[in-house]
Fold these 4 entries.
Entry 1:
Amino acid sequence: MKKFLASLLLSAMALSLAACGGKANTPATSGSPSSGSGTPDPAPSGDKVAIKVIAAQYGKQTKDWWAKFQSDFNAANEDIDLNVEVVSWDDIYTVVNTRIANNDAPDILNIDVFADYVSDDLLRPIQECVSDETYAKFYDAFLEQSNIDGTIWAIPDLASARAMYYNKDILEAAGVDTIPTTWAELRTACEKIKAYDASLYPWGVDMTTDEGQACFAYYSWTNGGDFTDASGNWTLNSAENVEAVEYIIGLVKDGLTNSDPATQKRYDLQELFAAGKLAMMIGPNQISSYVAGSENPINFGIASIPANEGKSTSSVGVMDRFMVFENEDTDSKVEAIKAFFDFFYEDTRYSDWVIMEDFLPATKTGGEIMAAADPDAASWIEIVGSAKFYPTAQAKWADVKQGVIDVEQKALQGGNVQELLDALQAKIAG
Amino acid sequence: MSQPANAIQKKPISLKKTILRLLLYFVVLDVCIITLYPYFAMLCTALKSREEIFSGNSVLPVTVLWSNFIDIWSRAPMAKYMLNSIIIAGGSTIIAMLCGIPAAYALARMKFKGQTAFLGFVIVSQMFAPVVLLIGIYQVMQVLHLTDSILGLIFINAAFNQAFTIWLLRGTFIGISADMEQAATIDGCNRIQSMMKVLLPVAAPGIVTTLIFIFINAWNEYTVALCLISTDTLKPLTVGINTFNGYNIIEWQYLFAASIFAIIPVVILFMCIEKNLVSGLASGGVKG
Amino acid sequence: MSTKTPAAPAGQQVQQSSPRLPNPGSKKFFRTIEPYIWIAPSIILMAVFIVTPIAKVFQLSMNKVTRAGKLKGFNNFENFTSVIKDPAFSLVLKNTILWTVAVVVISTLLGFILALLLNNKFRGRKIARAIVVFPWATTLVIQASAWKFVINTDYGTLNALLKKLGIISASVNWTSTPTIWFIWEIACGIFVTVPFVCFCVLSGLQSIDTSYYEAATVDGADYFQKLFKITLPLVKSSLTVSTVLNIIYVFNSFPIIWTMTKGDPANSTDTLVTYLYKLAFYNGKQGEASAVSVIGFIILLMCASIYMIYTLRKGDEDL
């Protein structure tokens, strides 16, 4: 048996050498991205227009969906050779930046950030690459999020909004009769839950490198604060922001939250919530279907994010984008890119995608289709319509994002919030 | 005189020996348990449902879901990933050895200018983490048309294992007396023949160890493969199993099930080669 | 290549190519360049696939690099000064040294002891050796994920196990402070490094001639005398190789810390490599990230030079 296995391994090695030899003679492998196995014409033909797409992996079906999209698209467009590469969120920045640094940018990229690419003159104005018909489908407010100096550089692929999720059974058992709408009520509710069962976590907080900026937004925006003022100047150390960070750090320090906000990501919280160990958290619409998918779904409700006394609540919107890189494009390539977007945003295909990924649509027609099909989705679409977004069009957003996360984590370790935010403001604005 | 003294000593020695033996078993057993614990946890998790994992109450799975191990094969092209990994690790091992053995031989058996400089260069070449070199590596691969190809990964892994190969084999070769090779030369062998026929068989334990090292390192490489390979069917196992690490959830049961598969080939390889490692010892015992 | 070398003069190396180069001068020439031919494949491999990328890192570190990775010219070492000025940098440097020293020293000790144990003949040795290879046969990303999963406060299997065994009654938070996180990361680092050391030493132990021990026993040497007088000097070569390489590998190790904490909270578990990765791919500062890697390189180079001077000057007899 062992001998057999050994010989198996050896022959695999021998095979690998043979494979190397074969490959070395055909360096064309990198030049002609293999189209899906369904395509009948495997020969790399010179007259085909090749488009490379890098797409973010949202969920478990993303890869399969894009694989099918690719073969459908290539079948429908004989003169185009589309290749979609799906990359997980953990790795996408590494992959994309490595390629861009080597002048090997994809033609179309699906990611969240775009301002950096604009400041390096890497992108095409998106309107050049999208047919008027498709362009007219987007909510204007969403397109505005990708506006830098009067030009729209990206189109949204989908959106998501955040709201407060709460476990009805835990709140009831702990004697929390009304759903907290203010910060003070939230604190009282947390204290009641803690008193009812000390092994439960009343409130979920995520201050990780992955998404700590969302935490900043949740409390800043519900306290009348913001990252910038109306004219786009950074206001990171405003009194509202200091109060907001101090409030949430206070909840953590008093043991009213999950145990380790600096390393527990949103999906850790989501798991705890679904397992009935976390009473309340702020999260995206996907949590609903995530919880409903478990064997013994908990009894949960959704409410607005609590705001400070006298301030109004605000949802946090998150939006990802498609952008087109300038890669010595010919007219036929631009046409091919237009064809790609037309194909993608075709109403049934697009709503199928959004529903599959469990996000919210970024097009009006998509929104109508989804709202008609699902009343839950309708209310979420309303929330996302009124949501605030991160100032992603600002060139310094990446620094600010990492900066506020650093402030939160230092505050967790006992740092003075005012001083930390002052220092960050000085670094960013100065 | 010596007879009684021996008799007195004999008893305590054998008792001491038994105690030592028991102690040895005890320690080795402990080491094995500690080493295996994470794998035990992985295996148990791989057999659970998602709900059971996050209830956090059970050690062993309450309902054993063997189906997780079957599901991963349909959820991702696991067989393809595994084959790619074997090709990458096997290919890297061969190339690293083909380049490394002559270099180590030259360092151990010849005197030349720049010998020390070369040894230093080998060490210095390892002082940057692959993570740091990603952008440069990608650039090289573009020039050679090796992006998105398994061959590129083979070369990278072979290059990053040169230091280890050369240093360990040089030590091994130096430790073996050159007399036998000289004798072989007198018998009419040339350098290559005397190396192949005399030195390498005697150096088997060191060579086998080096082989395992390179194979395992290449098998486990992640970052470079991640950036170089964009076609799904060319990905090695380490990158491929990221399929179970999504935007919203990590599917621990699948991730761990897949990881357990990823360990198996290495352990099998090791078990096969370990035998040679011991028999290599027998030939290594040739009196110098 | 012809292997026929008729009438080889006794005691002299004869090259297969000598018939083609009849005059003694070119034979001598060949003997001078011969070693370089032997090391050429290795040099070419490393030059192409390692040295070129290293040159790129130096280039990036000297240039202003935009977020998207475009070079915008020499910037007067600004990348270096802004890195060194960052207050987090000294913390990160301290962590890196702590991490490297702790992992290398402890795993070398444990690996050495384990190798001595596994070098004994006993029942099940083969299985024990195979088990020891496990941690190393596992991708670091997965290994670290598994550890993170095991020690998780809320659903970790360690808490579940201890509760089942009745050792604890309620879940324990195993990772309550950043320092404890760092200790876990070091433990994980040791866990995966021990097999490496162990097999390096084992390979050295196995080429030791048993007659040395027999002779020492006859001379009345006890176990520790034999250990320090025979074993240690003879495995020194493999032990030095494994230690030197370990210092480099551990210093540059990335996946364990990245998977477990990403260097959080606020750089308190960051090492240079995770720090520069964040700089490069989260903050888009590839120039500064390259500067950090150059600094790390200089530190390693200094350590290595000390080692080189120490061992190579002493000559090769003990290597």
Entry 2:
Amino acid sequence: MQYLVSVIYDNAALATPEEMAAIDVFNDRLEAEGHWVFAGGLAAPSSATVIDNRGGEAMVTDGPFVESKEYLAGFWVIEAADLDVALKLAAEGSKACNRKVEVRPFL
Amino acid sequence: MVASLTRRFGDLDIAEEAAAEAFATAVERWPADGIPPSPGAWLTTTASRKAIDRIRRENKRGDKQKEAQRLYDDDPSEPIGAIDDERLRLIFTCCHPALAMETRVALTLRMVAGLTVPEIARAFLVQETTVGQRITRAKAKIKAARIPYRVPSAEDLPARVSGVLAVLFLVFNEGYLATGPGTDPVRHDLTAEAIRLTRLIRALMPQDGEVAGLLALMLLTEARRAARVSASGELVTLAEQDRGTWDATLIAEGHRLVRERLAAAAAGVAPGCYQIQAAISAVHTSARDVRDTDWSQVVALYDQLVRLDPSPVIALNRAIAVAELDGPEVALAAVDRLEDKLAGYHAYHVTRADLLRRLGRSQNSRAAYDKAIELAGNTAEIAYLTRRRDQLG
């Protein structure tokens, strides 16, 4: 079972060196224990471009598809047996990156 | 049976529907074929087959079917005693912290205690459609997010248990003042189930003060059950109950638990809400006559409770005790301050009606009784309130 652990944040500040170091330790642990699938940090929402090609011609729009105070700053995709395992890992991830996270299962 | 099917198939919907189908088949077949030698086992086996049929029908992917088959084969017969374990698992799943509190309550009442959606809606003053949606969404989340079906590990248990206790207390309360014209005024099945489940939790966590407190509170309330409804089917208030019919064994057990928690409190462990409410109940059940009740002790305990839980319902109960200590006028002033929050709660109007009656304000009292009768869902309480109203001068 895979879960998306979204990192939610409200400004464009990058992770501090301390936060980066804690994230590395956490990532190593995910790999060592077989939970690692993929992870990444994202550039600011202002760097996003929206494409809508449902109407025959691709519409290109600048900016995120929804403006919000808090947004997706990065994510992990983890492998976990059930939600309890995923929530425990997410709690550690939140501590490591020093940000709020949301856990959502893949179909 | 739903609990055991859920464990096998990991899906509340499938378990619930399979159980219902098995009962329906039994109703159809047993009159013609005769009752099987072991009806319980027959139902479980039939329900398991129905569940597997349904999974086969629904699943295009083969892996789930294999999983169900494997789970089914792993557990061909159910050892006695495993049922309790399965109930615990079901409780902890229904009370998972990833679900909203009101969802946990609704789901447990539906899945563990077997209440209907209308009963749950009445008990919590919400729309039936709201309850139905909560349950449907919760089941979908349990499935999609794979909320596990198990008792949490020892390290996670304390954090998980308070949500479970809240739910069990609500189940008990619904049993003790059951709603709906078609139900018994006191549903012993629900109070007994709540007590049984709380005992299970206590066996799991014997050192937990709030578990002991809640069990004591339930026992001391259950002890008064026989005195609670009169021969003519009216609710009997605490003050008017025949205390000789109270269950001395349950009271003794409840008092033992309260003493255990008082000793812990004396040793510096701050009591939680259930322990304080159990202590209040212990004061009541210690008085052989209502006139012997130590009301100053009751009010002092309510003061302690209000500091922990400043909810309007607690404030209402405190006011009822204040009426005995400081008189109905003081109490009425306190009750009237709760109008904004409790105007839709029948007990608010019951309390006002009684206080107004004692103050000789018959006309106001009558109006409050009317409102209370309109909002009350318990048949015995409606009978009692109607008589009281009609006796007003």
Entry 3:
Amino acid sequence: MSTLPARSFEPEVPRGTATIGKSVLIKGQILSKEDLVIDGNVEGSVEAQENRITIGPNGRVVANVKARDVVVLGQLKGNIEASGRVEIRKGANLIGDIRYAKISIEEGADLRGSLEMIRVDVKPEPPKSTDVPAKPAAEKPAQQTLSAPAGGTGSK
Amino acid sequence: MTVMEKGWNRLFGSKKKPLSDAAAMEPVSISEKPELRELCRQSSALEQFFQAFHGQAGLMVLDLGVSNQENTDFFNELGHRLRYDNFVRSLDESFGGGDYYANQDDEDRIEEFQAKVLNFDDDSLDGILVWDSLQYLSPALLEGAVSQMHSILHKGGQMLTVFHTDEKRVEIPSYSYRIQSHNRVKLVSRAQRRPAQYFSTRSLEKLFRNFDQVKFFLTQDSLREVIVRK
């Protein structure tokens, strides 16, 4: 038998991500312009329109959640609206309605509520114009960049 | 024994337990973390259920089973809305601890249960996937639940229910039902549970007497699928 202490799950927190720790209780409105991990208690509303909200395994959230992507590992009582992807992971307990563009539900997740897919209209590509002069090679080095609209579904 | 029965027995076992008074008094036993076993088969009831959906979109269907990716994707592709309400889990939460079926006579617990499940406006649903959950309701609670299901369904709406046919078994397997296509379903075993009662064709006809139509489909895996239409 191992004498090592049991490892508790700590959600990976990448740089540029705000975290609400497991001993924190927040009541009110949360607006975030960066990714947010909630591993504590939140009551109210949570919004991160262009970012990801993760409810960690210790998270207890009673709030409506609006974000680009939402990942649930803990408990959520409230509705989710995600322009991108919703992930309901194993062990999650969710009571509320979900609107999403994409969804994944893991085995062992408990979900009670309605699911509604947001139909994303694909914008037709603008016609290629020959009027726009090509930029000089010096201004634009040999490098290709891809751009996506803010709050888009690039991470799907 | 048919090839399918052999396959089924190999996967799920065919052990039958003798019925005894002592066993009948035991609370519901739920095997702890049962090994995930599954079987995919054709379902005539499911085919019938989806026939009524032909050419329509945006319908609202209530799934009383465990939420899963397969059913979600299937309804997404059809363009319908799906709502999950884990009925058996709500039953366990409200009536667990002590004698499961005796607890189902407790008015406070019944009130708590009714506040949690089947809370919809009358005539608001186009279909209900009840699966096998009615088998774990005591007779009094069962009548009320079926009556409520009748109320919340649209006129012409359908319910798909499943009942075990082997009356000698004290415990029956409880499944998670995963829709594979309009006429195929995957059954994933979750637990062994003691049913509240055995349902014969006659008792089911009586139970669903307020519905306009009741259709039975016997399967080779000791299950009776029932489609009822309001």
Entry 4:
Amino acid sequence: MNRQILRLSGVALILLTTLVAASTYWQTWARADLAAKQDNAIQRVAQFSIRRGAITTGGRLLAGNTRRFVDGRALYFRRYPLGPLTAHVVGYSTASRARTGLEKSLNDYLTASNESLSTIVDRSLDQLRGKPIRGNDVRLTLNLRAQKAALDALGTKCGAVVALDPRNGAVKVLASAPSFDPNLAENHFSAYNRVTADCKPAAPLIDRATAGLYPPGSTFKVVTAAAALESKKFTPDSVFHDPGFCVEYGKPVHNFADQNGPEVFGTIQLHDALVHSVNSVFCNIGKTLGALPILRQAERFGFYAPPPLETPVDERRGSGLYEHGTLYFPKRDSQVDPGRLAFGQERMLVTPLQMAMVAATIGMGGVEMQPYVVSRIVSPTGKTILESEPTTLGRAVSQDTATAIQDMMIDVVRRGTGTAVQLSGLRIGGKTGTAETSIPGRNTTWFICFAGPDDGSSPHLAVAVVLEDQTLTGGATAAPIARQVIEALLPGTGNP
Amino acid sequence: MSTRSRELVNLFMVGILGTAAFGSAWIARANRVSADGLVDVAVIAAVFLAAHVVVRKTAPRADPTLLPLAALLTALGLTVNYRLDPADGKKQAVWVAVGILAFAATLVLLRFDYRILEQYRYLFGVSAIGLLLLPSVPGLGQRVNGVRLWIHVGGLQFQPGEIAKLFLVLFLAGYLREKREVLAQGRLKDLGPLLAIWGAAMLVLLQTSDLGSALLYFGVFLGMVYVATGRLTYVVGGGALFLGGSAALYTALTRVQERVTIWLSPWTDHRIYCPLNGQLDYRQNCQSYQLVKSLYSIAHGGFGGTGIGRETTTTLAGTPLIPELNTDFVFSAIAQGLGLIGAAGLVLAFMVLVARGMRVALIAQDGFSKLLATGLAFGLALQTFIIIGGVLRVVPLTGITLPFVSYGGSSILANFVGLALLMLVSHRARITSETR
């Protein structure tokens, strides 16, 4: 019988060995696949045993943790001490919903699952010591005082403010109104449906600063002017005759109208046409240039792709012509109405971030810097894992073109449509925009500008402000908000 | 060093391991570090020391690894059960004490010669069928998860199938010892009583849809017949019978079809009809919910595990993520907490236990002893394979307990009685081989 017993033992041991092999398969080879499964609730919960890194700016905590004990384990839940102030940039991280904002795009760093050597060493040591895994801290470039000034100035209006440093691309303000309290995302998500503002629906979760698509109105004339000067067909002194309208496909398209009817400027140079935002002049420039050169110039400013930033790519939109909800670049001039495009109509839609980049690029003499909102990422032991370095995106226009448009924009503030942002001691160049809709009181108004000390140095600031559903013009509604943001960011300036 | 002293040293080492494991679970549960948890450890250690003393008196020459390995598995089971639910852990500890009592009683009662059991082989066979039928008795039986396995007496739940398993092995050992020569010659008419009792057992199991036990009994039966007769034809014939039977069952029983479907494709990419709630859903959210959740748990453990006490077994709100975690799926809790190292270690402990059991069968002198030890050891191996293999998706999942580890009194009791029998055989085998 012993031979049979031996054979049967062999069978038994082979069976059991299979178990070791199968367990090895699931716990090593298939592990990542299973962890990535949508319905893997263990992974969702286990994320909470990691002490997520803090998100701070200027030493103030934007996202921290509270610790609770569940089923014998310490779990870390996110809290956002400043609530709505930076909600769109920071986003939220909850068990019940997908993450948003930097909480989403920097999740690997915040949970220490990024593959940098020092993180791997720290994480392994924590695991060996039985400590909770600690994520890396993220420090932002935002200026909370200006951020608060922007949100306060927006008040109940719907709109957004973007401010960045043109010299390096550091984003100082990313404000979108109405905002939301990320602390409610876990258990009171429906509260967001009850947020009210001057627009309907209020849509507080949309980051209007980076994903809000608006008709640019006259702010787009900066892009058209750039295309005109770059084409060498025009100079700032080129003379036009403005009858108060421009003829498009046999029909007159009028200048901006006030209670006295459409403005009529008569004989006017390109420089003053931008200062006074004369539609007919830009309409004619557009008809001369054609749509494609203008769009190519826009592309050099970064249109037709979401502007680079650390936030999730699906929370940023590219600017450009839109058709059926997607970006559309025409193949031939004839597919687009160049006259209307030239002064910011047609199907052109832009984001505040993109327009801030346009203002910054003009202010910097034509060189565009890559915007960034994360200044550095620091490991729990204090080592810097990643530090943002100023990166140029390239030259959008020549120095001469930039200087000429700077002068035009400075005159806009000095004696044109943007006098509301005049601040003594500062060199500010801006451009207003009022995109009218067929419904009165539903204008989208804009102000974009660069600002810096009046000593010939590069501007320290570029701002874009957009407001929805306004009755008045950009100069009357958006420019004062830009002024408050400039005052918050460039202190020491008195009123004129 | 004497055999029993080696056992004591082994038990001591198991005690260190068990204390460390239980300590982690206790600290995680209580969320403080204190020696209070050691009281529980001391009680269990005392119980096993008592068992050791009884073995010293009744079976001093028995294999010194069997009791420590059982103690290791028991300690791990207690730890995991305590980790998942301290109340269950305490109940399990009481059952372990009862199991050790039964272990000691078996040793004491059969200390002179366990082979008297052979005379009662038919009684064992018939009582096994009776035990298996108990859950079907109206008013006594109870259906849990669609399977009739339980009887309810007073406040106590009991799974008579676990005891029936022992009885069937005793019956087979006795019967096959008597008839092995004639069976080896292929005289099929001698198979009568065997097939009668066997067929009855299988029928009862199928009627109660206890597929896991049916598979286990069938495997043990084939294994013991092979050892007794040395004829592979029986195994091949039995295997063919099994395949045919399975095919027939597959078409006849929706439960079998469901098990196989879940096994072959636990995940679906699109929503299908879910018979559990009558709605459209992914299979991983429906029938294969348990298997899939348990695989996630195993995978989450990775190589080194999360550590005992740090497993993720509940949602953020504290509701369980993995069903039946302390019984059928106890392996997935261990694999998460201790990782591949711990899971492989657990299987290794079973392998050593099985190998030592088989060794007992090898050195045993008489046919009954050999067959008894083979049946017990191979049964242990097969039961481990069926449940862990099911959890690991090696074979279709059919719920049975993991010996010594799963929560459940009847299982613990039966396993300790089986262990006592194995140790008696071992003791006798080593005495006789030395005196000759």
